[in-house]
Amino acid sequence: MSEADFLLSEHDIAATNVCPAFEESLARGVSEAEVEAATGWTRAQLETPDAFVSGASTYRHMELMLAKPNYGAFVVAAAKRHTLSSLGVVGLACKTVATIGEAMQCHQRYQHLTNRTASYATEVVEGQFWLRETREDPSLGSQLISEYTLLIALQLLRDGTAKSLPAIRLQSRRARVPPEQREAVEGFAGTTLELGCPQAAVALDASVLAAPVASADGELAAYFRAVLERASPPAEAKALSRQVALAIRDLLPTGTPSAEAVAKRLGFGRRTLQRHLADEGAGFGELVESTRKALARGYLADPALSLTEIGYLLGYVEQASFFRAFRRWYGTTPAAYREGERRA
């Protein structure tokens, strides 16, 4: 796997997570060719065991469907296609624990194995169980995915308990939602959709945490826990420079990231981060440069991205700066490089 592949795909989202939305798109008359043109997905790719896709491609898929009629009905129907099994081995583990509270703990602990496009936090406040999502990308597609993710969470909780669980609160990052979409989402959730919130979040009665999981199985739970532990090495076993590269990737669309911003994201102080990088023989500035270089090659392979969009994703305020950097890296212009790869 190339560094571009690692930065663009491996640490985003397991293909099993996007299959329900892909299938619902086709059920609503969108062709596989149209989905592929917008996202790069193919059925063969999504059905490959252990395949991953980029988070950006999931945003483009939602934007594609938003432009079609009856988006609200689509997103609800796609959410209803999800079962705990659609989360792969993490979901299977959640299916076998004793209570919903244990299932939520299992999901939070191992979520990084199947979905790294967002982070989730849970808390109980005044008798309400809150699930909050943090997603850095401010784009419309990202906001749509945030809403969709909450509907999936509700669907999975209902799947786990075999009960209808109405939400108490449902919060969206979107500032405006057309009436058709609002009606569909609120009908599914059982509560009013609150708009313009800093995070996407859903709240249910806290008693849900004690609810038994309908398919609990102690022996299978122990088996899946062992599988997940083997697949999830401790944080100290991971190369810090690769964690830093991923943090840089996520922050680049807002401009050139600072060492302070990346350190805060990873839970370090700036000096501590730089000291640990030095122990690995890496420098922060060098990692920003190498990350941009690898991402540029990967982005140019996506025909849906214009050169202007690629410059933005790489954190360049001016296109001229992107072009100069690219010529320094590859000895040619981005357009010439893309054309050469296309002909190869």
Automatic annotation (TrEMBL):
<dbReference type="Pfam" id="PF12833">
    <property type="entry name" value="HTH_18"/>
</dbReference>
<dbReference type="InterPro" id="IPR020449">
    <property type="entry name" value="Tscrpt_reg_AraC-type_HTH"/>
</dbReference>
<dbReference type="GO" id="GO:0000976">
    <property type="term" value="F:transcription cis-regulatory region binding"/>
</dbReference>
<dbReference type="Pfam" id="PF12625">
    <property type="entry name" value="Arabinose_bd"/>
</dbReference>
<dbReference type="InterPro" id="IPR009057">
    <property type="entry name" value="Homeodomain-like_sf"/>
</dbReference>
<dbReference type="InterPro" id="IPR018060">
    <property type="entry name" value="HTH_AraC"/>
</dbReference>
<keyword id="KW-0804">Transcription</keyword>
<keyword id="KW-0805">Transcription regulation</keyword>
<keyword id="KW-0238">DNA-binding</keyword>
<protein>
    <submittedName>
        <fullName>Transcriptional regulator, AraC family protein</fullName>
    </submittedName>
</protein>
<dbReference type="InterPro" id="IPR032687">
    <property type="entry name" value="AraC-type_N"/>
</dbReference>
<dbReference type="GO" id="GO:0003700">
    <property type="term" value="F:DNA-binding transcription factor activity"/>
</dbReference>
<feature type="domain" description="HTH araC/xylS-type">
    <location>
        <begin position="242"/>
        <end position="340"/>
    </location>
</feature>
<dbReference type="GO" id="GO:0005829">
    <property type="term" value="C:cytosol"/>
</dbReference>
